[in-house]
Amino acid sequence: MNKSHDYDKILTRLTTILQRLYSGETLSVTELAEEFNVSTKTIQRDFNERLIRFPIEKTGRRWRMQQGFGIEKIQDIDNLLTLQILETIAGSIGKGFEARSKALLGKLKNATQLPIQSYLPIEDITSHAALFSLLESAITSSTALRFNYHEKPRLVHPYRIVNFDGYWYLLGFEPKSGLVKKFYIKEIRGAEPTEHSFIPDPKLKERLEGALNAWFDPNCEPFELHLLAKRAIVKYLERRPLSPSQHLIARHANGDIEVVIKATSVPEAVELLKTWLPDLIVLAPTFVKEAYEKTLSLALRRENGHDAV
């Protein structure tokens, strides 16, 4: 079996599975797990999460492409765009990774040149691929890790690798402090697995999935953020929600909408709001509205050449 870097393995596995599905094969989770030397849980995650946007379906204990989606149908724009994004991510991760993935992605795209270019500023992690492999293995097996971070020894229960604004982080629970922390992966030193396993907290896993950006605080109970979205951005929020927790509560005659999402901290909320200036307005809670207005006021003072008061 190819012993290439872990993220190389993931992309290779996914593209190989897709290629076989589009070619008309029906695939078994157990057989794929044995073929790729991973757990059946990993393969199930491939189908249920990583490949969820593709027209696949489960029939009995096997997976297949839905009827009418053979290899000749791969030119569907949603699938092509997904493959283009995968290719862009591969290039961002590192040149070596990009070269190894391009041939497989090329086969899936069926040699079609797309008029699409995705710009995803993801930092190059080629030099840290071994660390990524170790971290994912520990997360999958729920194994505690030891490493040094900012010149301090840490014992951490790893939960998830995430990318915020192009930068890679490990989210993990630190038993000593009793807190969930974000660790910038490129600053982790001397990581090694321990002999101790842990039982993941399902509530914590759910909370981590709702993170809006790097400013989220997994140690705080989420609060509701009531927002007014102006008509100019409504179509974008309908295409891609601000958060998995987003739900519509009102639609106004002028085209504006009101939505509610969950946030864990004021900085997390403010950072999201800044992205949609001036078309996303805070209705509640008051403490977020005030913090946002203070941030805007400070920005205007500095823009006009005045120091903060």
Automatic annotation (TrEMBL):
InterPro entries: CBASS_pafABC_assoc_protein, DeoR_HTH, HTH_11, WH-like_DNA-bd_sf, WH_DNA-bd_sf, WYL_dom. Pfam families: HTH_11, WYL. Keywords: Transcription, Transcription regulation. Gene3D superfamilies: Winged helix-like DNA-binding domain superfamily/Winged helix DNA-binding domain. Residues 10-71 form the HTH deoR-type domain. The keyword Transcription regulation applies. This is Transcriptional regulator. It comes from Hydrogenimonas cancrithermarum.
